[in-house]
Amino acid sequence: MKSFFLWLASIFEDQAGSASSKRIAMFICLFFYWMLVAGSLQGKPINDNVLFTVTGIILFGLGAVTAEFFKKPNS
Predict the structure, then answer these.
(1) Alpha helices, DSSP H, located in the chain
(2) How far apart are CA 35 and CA 3, in angstroms?
(3) pLDDT value at position 26?
(4) Which of 52, 24, 23 is nearest to 36 (CA)?
(5) So where are the chain's domains?
(6) Calpha distance 29→68 (Å, rounded)
(7) CB atoms < 10 A from the CB of 47, how many?
(8) What is the pTM of this model?
(9) Are 51 and 36 in contact (CB under 8 A)?
(10) CB count in 10 Å sphere of residue 20
(11) How far apart are alpha carbons 50 and 35 in whole angstroms?
(12) Residues sharing a CB contact under 8 Å with residue 55, sequence separation 6 or more, in sequence order
């Protein structure tokens, strides 16, 4: 069980091992996106502005997190 919590905490860490606010914001927006999709499957209307904004934040967060992998390490 302890290894599960360590794995879960490592999802939010950046390459240096500290908490990444970009990853946390991206996962929060993914949760909101999931709520929008689940609501639409139940017949609730979705505001286009909210959908496009959440999608834009997710894509920006994905690009910012991916860019961390291509940084040169400090020597």
Answers:
(1) 2-10, 21-41, 48-68
(2) 28
(3) 85
(4) 52
(5) 2-68
(6) 19
(7) 9
(8) 0.69
(9) yes
(10) 19
(11) 12
(12) 33
What are the pLDDT digits (tens) for 37-51? 999 999 999 999 999
**Which residue from 71, 59, 75, 61 is spatially nearest to 12, judged by alpha carbons?**
61
User: What dihedral do alpha carbons 9, 11, 14, 18 form, nearest 10°?
Assistant: -10
Indicate if the pLDDT at residue 16 is higher than 80.
Answer: no
Q: What CA–CA distance (Å, rounded) separates 15 from 69?
A: 7
**Res 10 pLDDT > 80:** no
SS3 of 19, please? strand
Query: Which of 25, 59, 48, 26 is closest to 40 using CA atoms?
Result: 48
